[in-house]
Amino acid sequence: MPKNLFLCRHAHTPEALKNQLDFDRALSPTGVQEATKAGFFIKAFGLIIDEIICSAAVRTRQTAYKIAEVLSYEQSKLKSSQELYNSSAAYILHEIASLPESAQTVIIVSHNPAVSQVVSKLINSKVYVPTGGCNYFISEATEWALVEHEPFKLHLNY
Fold first, then answer.
1. Residue 2: which of 110, 148, 144 has the closest Cα?
2. What 3-state DSSP class applies to 152?
3. Is the peptide bond before 113 cis (omega within 30 degrees of 0)?
4. What is the C-alpha separation between 15 and 121, in angstroms, rounded?
5. For position 142, what pLDDT does the model report?
6. pLDDT tens string 112-131
């Protein structure tokens, strides 16, 4: 069975307020709309979502919660990862390779520049993923550890 990966960038946030940590920045009203739109983009494929993993930052968790809400995915099952906050592309690829084999369809919500770098690497072409952007990859790999090295298809770039 193919592996389905949705690699998303968190939705829009305003600039940090004075003395506000970057980690604590919340979604703007535009960001809430972007996250909702991403959820409907994913829902349109009719897939059963096995896992949603996001950075522990407020904006990525809010994006993932909004996507989960649209998908009727139980929010208590969301997995938050401190390591995905401002992670490298190499770390995101490591996270993908470490996914459980029982999972067929996974959503990862993280940050730029790493999200754009991973998408660019997987399609071998420079791509910029905007806030709220979501890319859907279908891989014929039999194991998540092989996704980076096996042929796959970028189904759509929202």
1. 144
2. strand
3. yes
4. 28
5. 82
6. 999 999 999 888 889 899 99
Residue ranges in the chain modelled with pLDDT below 50:
none
Give the pLDDT of residue 16: 84
Written as one string, the DSSP assignment of 31-87 is HHHHHHHHHHHHHTT-PPP-EEEEESSHHHHHHHHHHHHHHT--GGG-EEEGGGTT-
User: Residue 147 has what pLDDT?
Assistant: 78
Phi-psi group of 25: left, alpha or beta (phi > 0 → left; psi -120 to 50 → alpha; rest → beta): beta
Hunting for tokens 């193919």 — which residue is that?
Answer: 2
Q: Smallest Cα–Cα separation from 49: which of 67, 28, 25, 22?
A: 67
Q: So what's the pLDDT on residue 158?
A: 61
Number of H helices, E strands in the chain: 4, 6
Identify the CATH assignment for 3-11+26-150 out of 3.20.20.210, 3.40.250.10, 3.40.630.10, 3.40.50.1240. 3.40.50.1240
Q: What is the largest CA-CA distance in the chain?
A: 49
Q: What element of type H or E holds 122?
A: helix 114-123
Residues whose CB is less than 8 angstroms from the CB of residue 3 and which lie 6 or more positions away in sequence, other chains included: 104, 105, 106, 138, 139, 141, 144, 147
